[in-house]
Fold this protein.
Amino acid sequence: MATILLVEDNEMNRDMLSRRLTRNGYEVLLAVDGQQGVDLATSRRPDLILMDMSLPVLDGWEATRRVKAAPETAAIPVIALTAHAMEQDREAAMAAGCDEFDTKPVELPRLLGKIRALLGEEG
Amino acid sequence: MDGEAAQQDGDACPYDPGGLGREATLLRATLENMAQGVAMYDASYRLVTWNQLFREYLDMPDEFFDNAHTFQDYIRYLGARGEFGDQVDIEAVLARRLAQLDHSHRFERTRPDGTILEVRRDPVPGGGFIAIYTDITERKLAEMKLREDEEQLRAVDAAAPVGLVIIDRASHLIRHLNGGMSRLIGREAATLAGRPVEAMFADPDKGRELWDILAGPPVERREFILPGPDGAPIWTMVAHGDLDFRGEPAIIATFVDITDRVQMEQQLREAKEAAESASQVKSAFLANMSHELRTPLNAIIGYSEILSEDAADNGDTAMVADLDKIQAAGKHLLGLINDILDLSKIEAGRMDVYLEQVFLNRTVDEVRTIVGPMMEKNGNRFVIDCPLDLGSLRTDVTKLKQSLINLLSNAAKFTKGGQVSLSVTRRQEGEVGTVRFEVRDTGIGMTEEQIGRLFQAFTQADSSTTRNFGGTGLGLTITKHFVAMLGGTITVSSVPGEGSVFAIELPAEAAEAPPAEAPVIDGGAPVEAGAITVLVVDDDPAVHEVLAATLGKEGYVLRHARDGIDALDIMRRDPPDIVTLDVMMPKIDGWSVLGIMKSEPELAHIPVIMLTIVDDRNLGYALGASEYMTKPIDRQRLLGLIHKFTPGEEGGQVLVVDDDPDVRAMVRAAIEDGGLHAAEAGNGREALVWLGAHPLPSLVLLDLMMPVMDGFAFLSEVRANSAYADLPIVVLTAKELTESERSYLAQNTLLILNKSAQPIGTLGAALSAIAGRSRGVGGKSAAGKAAPGGAG
């Protein structure tokens, strides 16, 4: 069972997405800010990270950069989640090292498709 | 008396007592030819000689011309006739006239009929006098007219609501200044006439400024601010021209007060600015608000989805239906918010256009995926006609996709159980290529009037459909704006009850970027101190354009080379801070350029970004690699490979070529575990040296990115030497374009971007990161390779 780290400060979003991911057979780790996200990524080595970009303490871009800079976590795919459905946001997220990008509100089938592709799972 | 008058008119002169005959005749002729009335009186004031004009002027009865009537008789007669006015004392007039007769005198008299006579009387020697009457009516009238005209002019000059100044061209002296001008500047004309133009204002600079305008070529109009009487500025429109004033060259200038207009303009401008800033505030508010609205919506949509899934699991279909309605409403609201956000950005001019090469088939496929379910929902057949060889166009893919989705979802919405088709065609007219996207449906269609309202915000032909997903009424408005931003047009035709056709035509090359054919080599632009220079090496002009547009905006100074040879020339002449290198190029390819760069000390340190659509794997094979392995290295696979190439050999040797000692150590361990010996080389050059000095190894494990000589250059050398023809080489390299590669690149200031997968716009961020680092480290040491982080 693949483990997904969900870094999201909004309680409702965190709750919804974690429940739906769990329902789809993933083990979900939760972090409420960027720093916690980086810490959990390092200590638990999830298979994939879902990273909100507007986060307290450490924002999603910086958290992603740190995850990607550390050799032990660099290989973990990161999907940026942002409410700004803008091309610049996508590019900024990619520049920070994210492997994928998705907008909120989450369209679960679409997000699941991206997760599966990055985890190398069959559709 | 008639007789006498007749006699006088006839042949003889009535006054010829001396019988002077001929002389008298001459005198008579002279008198009659005079243009004046003449009368002569003798010493006793009897009228003795006259001419015809005299009779006409005074209109006297014949009996007075009998040589017996006296001056007194005439005056009395004329007076009685009212010649001197109605109620005058004739005797007093006569007394006055008589008193004047002893000396020459002259006066003017206006007769009752309006004619004006000038009367002149001169005494003659020996007594008597001569009176000469001249009709000066015309002259008098002309004089009067002239005087009136002059007064009129003077009044106009004084009263005209326009300032007028006449200035002598040579001396700058004010020749004339009218009342209007004097009122404008609050100075009396008299105090300024004859003074230099500079004296017109308290501030001599102001006067000089005016003179500069007036001395210049006559222009239609020019604005000039006059200091008013109270010092407040008066905006005037000045016009001036040449004038010959009393024989001297002069300048005539008029000043029209336009203060009201200027102030009105200013108020308008302020109002406009206020409106614009209000509009920006509105847009910013909308953008923020949209964000705030999305967060709770997110929860509404998400939880209703979760509940709907739960309900479905529990078999509660009624609940599922209700929850789906909540979800659909939430999505509708979300679509509305997104559209409003788009529209407010368009209105605020903050909608940016990102141009890139867009592949038509791929884009159409993506659109099909999105609109497919909408088509099914209304039972429509969706037909796509997009030939596979359509190629690409340069445009903003997001806006193009959204426009197509808007048109197609509309078509799907207004068509039930019919057909919707999307056809894409390309047309080339000379240099200009266009791509046409046509969306045709067999739906309800529209009337002329509905078409007229079509592109207005918040209007829909059928308002009852707004409950459908996406039906915000803003879609077409946004689409129209998008298409315009991309330099295209949108057209519509429709027949009610039969269907509609919407067509978008876009230029194959959306304008906005620099000229299509960028100069091959641009060594010219002066380099700003501190600016980072980027040498773009690519044979595709589009790449030059995109980079110029994106990087130029960021303050990078770009150099351009169309092939590797040019690139090397430019680099050697003036090493850039960063090079972006295409792989597939004519003459010499990117890898060769990279190899040459790494072998030249002056160029080796320059960070290079490879732009490629060829993956390393194929290139590695093409260069003669036996196998290909990706980093991070899978130990088992490595062992498997080693065994594959060293079958049954014990004690064989494997040469590990990698610049990272950690990788070499790890690989050495694996090799030794496999019962083989390992030799190490830090780069291609070292490896070549090693090969020359040792027997052929069983296998070479080769990293691609290395200093001095990289894996590609090593491969070329080895494959060119027949002695090494059978040497098995396994290439180790970072896999595709992933995180491990990125961290590898991050440490080596070398980056491989996959052109087909990565938006070229992200290059700016990558470049600044690299530039910052290479600056910080400085010079060659930046190129000195640290450990590739991917290994491990």
